[in-house]
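We now fix the convention by which a protein and its fold are recorded. The integers have meaning only within a learned vocabulary of local backbone shapes. A complete example follows; check for yourself that the lines match position by position.
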Amino acid sequence: MEVRYWVVKNTVTGLYFRGKGTNRWGEYFNQASIYRVKGTAEHSALEINQRKRPDECAVVVEIQITEVI
């Protein structure tokens, strides 16, 4: 069984959601909050979109994590 992961991405700026607080958005994948449950990611996106900040429009994006040895 393949493990699936999701992140929340801002469609306006292209940044990834890092979490609540001052630095909410990050430019790089390694800064993103990674979710293993799609529903949790969707809930975070819903909370972001309900605040209706003009520069924040969040969507859930599936990602793939690969280990390189």
